[in-house]
Design goal:
The chain is mainly alpha-helical. It is built from nine helices and no strands.
Length: 322
């Protein structure tokens, strides 16, 4: 019984997580990436507080990108995201299930709310170290470029995700891909802890309120709704971490300066020059990016997982849930 989850079903296999998680991640990236580009530009903006100077909002930032760089400018860095999204989602869901079973009650197989939180936290840290940080360094370098995609003579430093990866490693060393990894791990850990915990509670609540769905998948609209709610939890809790991380990963490290010294320097400069609100720059597009992204991710993941499990049941002629 300890190998099963609360609903009596076995955890999804690694292959199922790879296919379902990867498909969900690709859909999320394609739908939500423009909002991530706007968020990064807002976080990198250094428009100081001064008379007559208003902070540029997310709509104005998006319009400016399209005007100067065409609509394709909103998809800068998408290659880096798509290149890492399959292993990222596979690691996220597979490690979450593994940690959750490790923390489950040995007698009953029940997973407590605390265990769900810890499993989500550990899964977020795992994906951050394994995939997310190198992917984000490349993505942010591409997104931070202000060249126009409409002008062929306006040559960017980084032409593509592979070229950016090669250039960063060549000029700054392999360790540059892990710049800000502590902040990324902290952000991803808190994101997934809040995300999986809220999603698990809301899903259990709806299944108990609707006995007909006690042992089967909730309707897609309900999965989308609880994914949207759970996805909004993380950004509000760790926005300052994400903003500092973005600025840290944007520029090369200074010789002899430790990571902690850079973090403290960036945080101090932001507060002195731009005020406390600077730590929440890009929070609107980030919530608009992450919350719908998680709604898409959970909806597509649950849909594909159910289809894959039914397919496996029909192929092998046995009840997968037993």
């Amino acid at each position: 019984m300890s190998k099963n989850n609360q609903n009596g079903k076995k955890p999804a296999s690694a292959a199922t997580n790879l296919i379902a998680g990867g498909g969900a991640g690709m859909m999320e990236a394609l739908v939500c990436h423009p909002l991530d580009t706007i968020k990064v530009r807002m976080q990198l903006s250094r428009r100081a507080k001064a008379p007559g100077v208003k902070p540029r909002g997310f709509v104005a930032t998006g319009v400016e990108i399209v005007k100067k760089e065409t609509a394709l400018g909103l998809y800068k860095g998408l290659g880096a995201v798509l290149g890492g999204i399959i292993p990222k989602m596979a690691i996220r869901f597979t490690s979450y299930e593994w940690y959750k079973q490790l923390l489950a009650d040995k007698e009953t197989g029940t997973v407590s709310g605390k265990a769900t939180f810890v499993a989500g936290l550990a899964a977020g840290v795992t994906e951050a170290v394994a995939v997310v940080n190198p992917m984000e360094v490349v993505k942010i370098r591409l997104q931070a470029q202000h060249h126009s995609l409409a002008d062929p003579l306006d040559a960017p430093k980084y032409r593509s995700a592979p070229h950016a990866l090669f250039t960063v490693v060549k000029e700054e060393g392999f360790s540059a891909l892990y710049r800000g990894v502590s902040l990324t791990a902290l952000r991803q850990g808190t994101n997934q802890a809040a995300n999986f915990t809220a999603y698990s509670y809301l899903k259990t609540f709806l299944q108990k309120a609707q006995p007909e769905y006690a042992d089967k998948q909730l309707p897609s609209y309900q999965t989308t709704l609880i994914g949207l709610i759970s996805g909004a939890m993380g950004p509000f809790s760790n926005a300052p971490i994400d903003t500092i991380k973005t600025r840290l990963q944007r520029t090369p490290a200074q010789p002899g300066q430790t990571a902690m010294a850079r973090i403290m320097s960036i945080a101090s400069d932001m507060f002195k020059q731009e005020g406390a609100k600077a730590f929440y720059k890009g929070i609107t597009p980030r919530v608009m990016r992450v919350a719908p992204g998680q709604a898409v991710t959970f909806t597509v993941y649950e849909f594909l997982r159910e289809k894959l499990e039914k397919s496996r049941w029909s192929i092998f002629g046995g009840d997968y849930s037993e």
